[in-house]
Amino acid sequence: MRALRILLIVVVILGGLFVIADRVAVHFAENEAADKVRSTEGLDATPDVSIKGFPFLTQVASGELDDVVVDIKDYEADTGTAGKTIRIDDLHADMKDVTFSGDYSSATAQTATGTALVSYDELLKNAATEPVDIGLGYTGKVVGLGDGGNGKIKVTLEVNGPAVDNQRVNVLSAVTVKNNTVQVHADNLPKLPGISLVEDRFRQASDFGQAIDQLPGGIKLDSVKAAADGVEIAVKGSNVKLAG
């Protein structure tokens, strides 16, 4: 009995040491991976990298990590227009089946899904900034974006013309994703006193698209919905490079 007791104590101690070693190793790997992602993506701040699953050391031995989560704050995405970017407040990506090199200089996920948030103020910067001719001497310009409820964006336009001066008009608009571009499309035309608006002319002022390109690792926009603080975007990708 005494020998069995000693054996059990040894097993518990070794198990505890293994857990400690495993957690130290995963913490080191997370820091190394975070530094590589920051360098690869040219980020101002180090992202948060979390390696899921236990034990970590057996995953390392196999050369593949089951699940790696990356969180990036204030990511500047390309818009397809020279010198112009759009800020993503929170980019969250969940990487599955990640293969990596021994020094963590390169890592590739078989699949990735995630979310991103673009504020209404940031999206507004890329809407029509100059008044657009909507016919009969009237012009319209988008001056505000907000949550319209039920998955819609409330687009506020400022209309000027012979019968109105700085008239604010709110239009509920659908938001969708196509070809890596967030598209805002008005559901209905506004009713303005004395003005008969031609739809295609009005939409030149109310409708717009915003490309969001070159996201980390080559992930792409999948879907989008309006939320309280901005548009929430779902992203996905395959063979996504975290680093290298």
From TrEMBL:
Protein's name in the database: DUF2993 domain-containing protein
